[in-house]
């Protein structure tokens, strides 16, 4: 077996044809280009090619612009981020170096790159950009500022892209909800209400426990983005600073906002991220963590939060959030004891047990026993090949009716099933050797009964 | 200001002839009767009681000054004490019987301190050397000794409600012997000593006086309420206090509560609706204490502060005939806390000079405005007989969205209310489950949380909260106020849940409607997702109706119908109405109700889709079913499917057999691989 390469980013660029309508002004169209050291000539050439593809395909289907360009070695994903503004991402297709008849050659794994997955990644990139910077359309007459903002955002964001671990979950971009009993949930809800009532500048808020969402009063479109920002970026980074031994032990700490020990410091309050919500509102994002519970507060931005505010909030939240955290932990351990047959971590670790991914389009809830955490670190319990297959099943689903079922068998005797009903998607991976279709169908049904017993999911 | 008081005197006092040179006035605590004895009875004895039956008047011979006079509880015998050694009796069987009969105390040198009717025909003499119990036999005009007890006695206190008699003995008077009277006898309870604030060295003298000791029933327990005048000390200012001993299980007295008065001077104690009221003469104010409210405790004794600030009793005006114009009535304001006041248990105040007997009453509405701490207020009101309306008013004001009370306080108030509510439900349940078998003497007392707090007088249940509090405040919920109302409702549901009380569906409906009104759909979705709201068909229907404004409500409704397990019909209807005919078929196949399914309904829905493929599939499905059910594919007459059979024939059989092929929807163009 020769060396292999994973899918990787070749380039990522933004352009708007309106900025350079005349010949010789092509450079002005390019708003952002990664890698930045690329020479102008290449930039113009690539942008021009994409423009041409878009124009050309437009004649065939004007209602749906071109989304992907397949070549042997690359895959280009094209997304009109905002009217006139195009975001383009080119990926290098993964390869395997093989030897045949004594001759080395490279085999390009074109089938391993799923358009839907990477289109979703590109869309997510731009949504994330919008969350922190607002719409490009609003700044349309100031290309310099657009360039600066895109540069500032993507220079930090591109390193966090984990393209090789992108999969079906990126398409969903869902949120993991913490399974919880009603009473504990109400306790969380009541805490949220108290915070919002005591601090009227809090516009809305959400509570997370570890990497799972417990409650959100934030608009789901925004929450989805904030959730991913928190889980894949902010909280893991914070965790690293938290385990530094030099830090004093305190009940709760600000993840964004001032470090609790320095709340007295006026300057430390100025570095709070500002977000642009889909409603057009502009808010501050304050994230506060106590034990394993995280409170994510959106503050109205008409006044900058004062150190006094942070002190009061800290005093109010610290112990209360810690208490909720303990309660949540107790509730979680209780529920995992009560249902040993369900997806407790232990059973999902063994490679042969059935795994599933669940997604509900309506509330964007996802649950996966294939992914061991929500942080997109490639910690998965089934082979990459099967995960890619799941993406393909999803792409296929687009052509099926609202309520349908797909079952596939792989070369190495694994089974992949997808069921779609009532705006929900349920994917199952089974490693049952020598099984037949009926057995697999029954097993899928059994898993539906086990995991989806409380919802309407037609057979 | 209207709220300058929280106590008032009853509006129609019992009027009697005032004390004068010729008239003596006596009060019998047991029967609540005032006796105005004129000239030793010759010119008349006027008896005024709380009712007509207990009021009378008569004349009797003057046989010397009366020391004490009391009717038996059935009003058949009148006992009069005129000497230190004997008591005379008069029968009132049918009008007054002029023949008196007399009973002397047994001990030769004994002096009668007083006498008490302990039952309709039993009387006890308390002498300085013991007590003597007699049975009165009016028919024979004689008494029969029943039982006696020798003990040196300084003074005594009796409470007719508990039939408890406290005898003071010992040199300081603080050694107390309680006796519990039963028919035909009495029980000697455990003797106890009342703590004295300071004991004089020499010579021993009576330190604990009768006027400082009150015996009353508080929260169903007999309490010995002792006023203690603490001499000023270095470490604290002067101030009297009230020490309370409760009679546990009617056996042993235990020091249990200490009420801080922080004042000195003359005090008097009343008990109204289980509140201990301490009147202070010097400041002309009264304090109220609720020993059920939580206070600091050292493990044995609970220390109480007054429920709220001391305030005077509401001014009282008496209507008296005017001096100038005889037909007119003049209003005369009475002096409150006058030196002529005598206080009796449990709630009686007598002004002997004025000739008035009042009951002390609570003005809970005013108490509610004076008491700032809302949790204490709620705790206090749930124990008051007339607390319910006041409490509901308080809650309505507290939860007014325009006031925006701190949710922390709201939460605490709900928890207090629901704790009472839960206790009430538990007692209800136990009384329902108590079958004769389990009440046998061998059965253990019902297990469960032993609540020390007494059974509350007021229970505010969910329907009270709903109709009297939540609905009115929800009507005010506009804009930002809606958020508060939702928070309050959730807090209430949370509190019910914490107390393991099942939540009624109308609360959920109100909650959901308020959330819908606020367009807080995502939040509502999460509530349903975590099953905070219990499933029900009406709720599912409500959700279905919301589909137009919140599409996900449709999915939530279907989930709920599925969980109910009894709503398969409804699920089919919903699916058919959404033109999800095949889903509906799969559903009935899945739950095995194909045989009962109405083919007409399905065929109608299928035809309405306008999709021939679907109609064909559904038609064939039911033909197959008929085949299995009856052996032939035809529909029976009762199924009314002729129309559809005809439609089928028109569409698919007339022009040859053109079975529709299940072609996948055509994909556009050759660029599919390259461009999608």
**Assembly context of the chains:** heterodimer
The shape of chain B, in one word, is elongated
How many helices of chain A? The count is 11
- What's the level 1 CATH class of the largest domain in chain A? Alpha Beta
Q: Main sheet of chain B: which strands, in order across?
A: 20-21-22-23-28-27
User: Helicity level of chain A, as a percent range?
Assistant: 25-40%
The main pleated sheet of chain B reads as: 6 strands, mixed
Structural class of the helices, strands and pairings of chain B?
Answer: alpha+beta
The structural class of chain A is: alpha+beta
Please give the count of helices of chain B: 15
Helix percent band of chain B: 25-40%
Number of domains of chain A: 3
Report the span from N to C terminus of chain B: 80 Å
Beta fraction of chain A: 25-35%
Low-confidence stretches of chain B: 436-452, 661-676
What is the makeup of the main sheet of chain A?
Answer: 6 strands, mixed
Radius of gyration of chain B: 39 Å
Whole-number radius of gyration of chain A? Answer: 24 Å
Please state roughly what percent of the residues of chain B sit in beta strands, choosing from under 5%, 5-15%, 15-25%, 25-35%, 35-45% or over 45%.
25-35%
**Largest interface, counted by CB within 8 Å of the partner chain's CB:** A-B, 47 and 51 residues
């Amino acid at each position: 077996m020769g060396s292999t390469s994973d899918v990787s980013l070749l380039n990522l660029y933004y352009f708007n044809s309106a900025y350079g309508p005349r010949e010789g002004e092509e450079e002005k169209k390019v708003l952002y280009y990664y890698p930045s050291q690329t020479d102008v000539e290449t930039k113009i050439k690539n942008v021009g090619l994409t423009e041409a593809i878009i124009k050309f395909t437009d004649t065939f289907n004007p209602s749906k612009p071109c989304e992907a360009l397949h070549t042997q070695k690359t895959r280009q994903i094209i997304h009109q981020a905002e009217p006139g503004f195009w975001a383009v991402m080119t990926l290098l297709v993964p390869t395997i170096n093989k030897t045949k008849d004594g001759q080395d050659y490279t085999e390009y794994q074109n089938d391993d790159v799923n358009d839907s997955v990477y289109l979703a990644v590109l869309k997510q990139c731009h949504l994330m950009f919008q969350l922190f910077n607002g719409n490009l359309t609003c700044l349309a007459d100031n290309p310099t500022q657009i360039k600066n903002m895109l540069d500032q955002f993507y220079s930090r964001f591109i390193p966090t892209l984990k393209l090789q671990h992108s999969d079906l979950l990126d398409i969903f971009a869902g949120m993991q909800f913490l399974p919880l009993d009603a009473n504990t949930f109400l306790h969380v809800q009541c805490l949220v209400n108290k915070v919002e009532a005591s601090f009227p500048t809090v516009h809305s808020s959400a509570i997370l426990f570890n990497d799972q969402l417990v409650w959100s009063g934030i608009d789901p479109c925004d929450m989805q983005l904030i959730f991913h920002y928190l889980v894949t970026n902010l909280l893991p980074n914070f965790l690293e600073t938290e385990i530094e031994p030099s830090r004093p032990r305190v009940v709760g700490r600000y993840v964004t906002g001032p470090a609790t020990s320095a709340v007295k410091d006026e300057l430390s309050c100025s570095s709070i991220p500002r977000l642009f919500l889909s409603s057009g509102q502009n808010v501050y994002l304050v994230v506060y963590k106590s034990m394993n519970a995280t409170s994510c507060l959106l503050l109205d931005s008409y006044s900058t939060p004062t150190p006094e505010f942070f002190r009061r909030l800290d005093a109010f939240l610290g112990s209360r959030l810690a208490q909720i955290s303990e309660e949540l932990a107790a509730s979680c351990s209780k529920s995992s004891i009560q249902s040993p047959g369900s997806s407790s971590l232990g059973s999902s670790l063994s490679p042969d047990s059935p795994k599933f991914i669940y997604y509900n389009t309506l509330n964007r809830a996802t649950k996966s026993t294939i992914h061991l955490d929500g942080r997109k670190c490639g910690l998965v319990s089934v082979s990459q090949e099967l995960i890619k297959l799941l993406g393909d099943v999803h792409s296929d689903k687009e052509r099926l009716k609202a309520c349908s079922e797909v079952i596939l068998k792989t070369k190495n005797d694994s089974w992949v099933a997808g069921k779609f009903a009532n705006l929900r998607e349920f994917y199952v991976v089974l490693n049952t050797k020598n099984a037949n279709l009926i057995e697999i169908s029954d097993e899928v049904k059994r898993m539906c009964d086990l995991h989806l017993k409380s919802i309407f999911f037609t057979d | 200001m209207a709220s300058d008081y929280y106590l008032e005197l009853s509006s129609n006092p019992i009027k009697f002839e005032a004390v004068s040179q010729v008239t003596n006035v006596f009060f019998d605590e047991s029967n609540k009767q005032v006796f105005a004895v004129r000239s030793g009875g010759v010119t008349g004895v006027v008896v005024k009681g709380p009712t007509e039956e207990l009021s009378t008047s008569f004349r009797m011979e003057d046989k010397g000054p009366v020391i004490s006079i009391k009717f038996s509880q059935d009003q058949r015998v009148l006992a009069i004490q005129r000497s230190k050694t004997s008591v005379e009796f008069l029968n009132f069987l049918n009008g007054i019987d002029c023949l008196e009969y007399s009973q002397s105390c047994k001990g030769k040198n004994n002096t009668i301190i007083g006498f008490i009717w302990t039952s309709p025909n039993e009387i006890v003499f308390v002498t300085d050397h013991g007590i003597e119990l007699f049975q009165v036999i009016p028919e024979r005009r004689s008494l029969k000794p029943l039982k006696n007890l020798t003990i040196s006695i300084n003074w005594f206190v009796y409470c007719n409600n508990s039939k408890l008699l406290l005898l003071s003995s010992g040199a300081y008077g603080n050694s107390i012997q309680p006796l519990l009277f039963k028919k035909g006898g009495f029980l000697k309870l455990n003797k106890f000593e009342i703590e004295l604030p300071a004991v004089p060295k020499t010579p021993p003298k009576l330190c604990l006086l009768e006027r400082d000791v009150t015996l009353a029933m508080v929260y169903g327990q007999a309490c010995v309420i002792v006023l203690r005048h603490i001499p000023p000390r270095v470490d604290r200012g002067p101030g009297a206090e009230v020490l309370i001993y409760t009679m546990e299980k009617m056996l042993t007295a235990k020091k249990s509560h200490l009420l801080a008065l922080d004042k000195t001077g003359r005090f008097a104690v009343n008990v109204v609706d289980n509140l201990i009221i301490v009147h202070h003469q010097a400041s002309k104010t009264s304090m109220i204490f609720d020993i059920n409210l939580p206070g600091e405790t050292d493990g044995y004794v609970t220390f109480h502060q007054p429920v709220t600030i001391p305030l005077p009793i509401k001014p009282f005006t008496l209507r008296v005939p005017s001096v100038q114009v005889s037909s007119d009535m003049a209003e005369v304001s009475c002096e409150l806390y006058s030196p002529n006041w005598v206080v009796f248990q449990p709630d009686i105040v007598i002004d002997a000079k004025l000739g008035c007997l009042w009951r002390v009453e609570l003005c809970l509405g005013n108490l509610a405005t004076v008491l700032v701490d809302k949790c204490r207020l709620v705790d206090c009101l749930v124990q008051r007989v007339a607390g319910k309306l006041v409490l509901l008013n308080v809650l309505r004001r507290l939860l007014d969205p325009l006031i925006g009370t701190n949710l922390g306080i709201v939460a605490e108030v709900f928890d207090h209310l629901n704790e009472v509510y839960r206790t009430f439900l538990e007692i209800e349940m136990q009384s329902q489950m108590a079958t004769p078998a389990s009440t046998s003497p061998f059965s253990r007392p019902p297990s469960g949380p032993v609540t020390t707090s007494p059974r509350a007088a007021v229970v505010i249940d969910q329907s009270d909260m709903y109709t009297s509090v939540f609905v009115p405040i929800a009507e005010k919920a506009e804009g930002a106020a809606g958020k508060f109302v939702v928070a309050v409702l959730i807090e209430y549901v949370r509190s019910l849940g914490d107390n393991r009380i099942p939540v009624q569906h109308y609360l959920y409906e109100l909650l959901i409607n308020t959330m819908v009104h606020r367009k807080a759909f995502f939040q509502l979705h999460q509530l349903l997702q975590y099953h905070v709201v219990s499933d029900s068909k009406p709720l599912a229907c409500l959700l279905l109706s919301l589909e137009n404004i919140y599409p996900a409500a449709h999915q939530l409704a279907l989930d709920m119908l599925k969980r109910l397990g009894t709503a398969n019909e409804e699920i089919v209807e919903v699916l058919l109405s959404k033109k999800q005919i095949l889903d509906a078929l799969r559903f009935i196949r899945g739950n095995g109700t194909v045989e009962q399914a109405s083919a007409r309904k399905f065929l109608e829905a299928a035809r309405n889709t306008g999709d021939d493929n679907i109609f064909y599939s559904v038609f064939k499905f039911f033909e197959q079913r008929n085949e299995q059910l009856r052996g032939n594919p035809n529909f029976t007459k009762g199924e009314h499917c002729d129309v559809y059979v005809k439609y089928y024939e028109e569409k698919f059989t007339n022009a040859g057999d053109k079975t529709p092929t299940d072609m996948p929807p055509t994909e556009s163009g050759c660029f599919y691989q390259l461009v999608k």
